[in-house]
Specification:
Structural class: alpha+beta
Order of helices and strands: EEEEEHHEHHHHE
Number of helices: 6
Radius of gyration: 19 Å
Helix content: 25-40%
Distance between the termini: 35 Å
Number of strands: 7
Largest sheet: 7 strands, antiparallel
């Protein structure tokens, strides 16, 4: 069995916000994405009344703390575009809102959150479920036009799920991986992913978080 890919997380203690009411506190969730182990993504949230998560109000992308400066690479537009920011934010919010803190509310010393993607034979059923949930007005039996729109939505959902699965499997170039499987160019896959986002088929619930384990804190 393949070991699940994992993100590494660190959560700061809540800090007062200057010139803000006392019931508001700032928290940073930092994570090293499983598919981008050379990067650190810091996401800023506000905690209201000690329990309500608001935001995110900021995202910073930088080199991971254990990457030598000689191996740094620029954080350019292509890298930012390809990062699964929506899913990383979902994982960060989950880490902040679930059992990754002690009963007293203090952050753990370090955690890993394991992700598993959908199995290939699950993707058709998951894609149909996504389309039915997010586009309940589309009936493939309503006529040729409706059938064409249905088929397009199904394809977009399947590609999004395949892309999600490639990320959680640790593929460095998930769009290229999906493109090879489908016999198309990576640019075509990116166009489909953009279409999936426009149709509300992005950030599916397909990637489940299944285990938590301790991991070292960064040194900075």
């Amino acid at each position: 069995m393949t070991t699940p890919q994992s993100h590494r997380f660190w959560i700061t203690d809540p800090e007062p916000i200057e010139d803000a009411p006392d019931n508001l506190a700032r928290v940073l969730v930092s994570l090293v994405p499983a598919s981008y182990p050379d990067l650190l993504v810091r996401i800023e949230y506000v905690i209201r009344d000690g329990q309500h998560i608001e935001g995110p109000y900021g995202v910073r992308i930088q080199q991971a703390p254990d990457v030598e400066i000689t191996e740094w690479r620029p954080v350019g537009a292509t890298l930012v575009r390809d990062l699964p920011i929506t899913k990383l934010e979902r994982a960060a919010r989950l880490a902040l809102s679930t059992g990754l803190r002690s009963p007293s509310g203090a952050p753990l010393s370090g955690v890993s959150l394991f992700m598993t993607g959908p199995a290939p034979d699950e993707i058709p059923e998951l894609a149909e479920r996504m389309v039915r949930e997010r586009h309940p007005d589309v009936n493939p039996d309503a006529g040729p036009g409706a059938a064409r729109r249905w088929n397009r939505l199904i394809r977009l959902a399947e590609v999004q799920l395949e892309y999600d699965a490639a990320i959680t499997a640790g593929e460095k170039a998930p769009a290229a991986y999906v493109a090879e499987k489908r016999g198309v160019a990576p640019g075509t896959v990116r166009t489909w992913l953009h279409g999936a986002k426009q149709e509300g088929l992005e950030a599916s619930a397909a990637s489940d978080f299944t285990a938590v384990a301790n991991s070292p804190l960064p040194t900075d």
